[in-house]
Specification:
Layout lengths: L1 H20 L4 E6 L2 E5 L1 H6 L22 H12 L7 E7 L5 E13 L2 E10 L1 H45 L3 H26 L5 E3 L4 H11 L5 E8 L3 E3 H21 L5 E11 L2 E8 L10 H4 L2 H12 L3 E6 L3 E8 L16
Length: about 350
Amino acid sequence: NLKKTTEKAIADEQRLRLLLDTAPFSIGIHQHGVLKFINTAGVSMLEVEAPEDIIGINIEEIVHPDFLESTRLRVEKMMRGEKVSKTVEIIFLTRKGNEVPVCLHVTPFEMDGEPAIQVIAEDISERIEREELLENAIREKSILISEIHHRVKNNMAIISALMQLQAFETDHQEVRSTLNESVNRVKSIALIHEQLYKSQNLNEVRFDQYIKPLADIVSDYFKGRGKVFFDYEIEETSLNINQAVSCALFLNEAISNVFKYRTGSGESLCVISAKQMGRNIHINVKDNCPWSAEFLSDKQRNRLGYQLMETTADQLHGTFTIEEKEGMLITLIFEKELSVKGSASNNIITL
């Protein structure tokens, strides 16, 4: 019986060694900081000829200096029975001095009545290389997209300049006014692309940072039509590019109407607010100056500016209202999209 038990124990040990030696990952055991066992994969990883060439060394000899202190602390905590993460990424140093990034899976156990630690090391060199390639690709894509937004902004500036030149050449006041208003519409879109070009996030526009510059552009165009002071009640709000462009066109028309349809030439206060309530974005343009009756007439509804507000509100799957409320109040409400749906072609205006 003793002989059979001994033979069985030897057979079990041989099977275990075969299992460890054929494992695809490096497996080692250290006790009191000394390497006691290493399998074939570990021998290959550490660039030695045989296990005997490395068994018996202090494990700190194969740990990169940058990870020595953290490794010591982890081992000490494990030996005291403290709870530590059993997975960690460090760098091994081979016996030839080469660096090997590894992911370690560490398990404390008892061997020959003494505490020991089993370490399974996975070479993650290829994974790190793939991650670096992916990061470089993402970085290059971000630079490319940023450059595209920059060029779109510049092209729109050229279009605006050409339209302004055309406006200067005509003696027809209505044509000149129409061209200049179209210039403002182009500028409102160009401002979106300028923000995206300068932003770290190329997927969304900080619309709260967009509203004041847009109001300044419109105010500059309509200077001479009375003094309008602006006040802003704006919460931090981000929109994807499709919604931002539609919203920009709507807001450009709403602010322009403050100047075009107010009565008198005195001072007035226009309050622009933008807030997110749940999933919905609420934008208000409230002017305290009475507006002319022409703005609410049926004739006005057939004009380009009104149709643009109506169309962009539809594109946003939202609603807009106009109320006479101690002046005039224009409100736009729409649901914020969490991501871009469809392509930029969704922003084509169909009147």
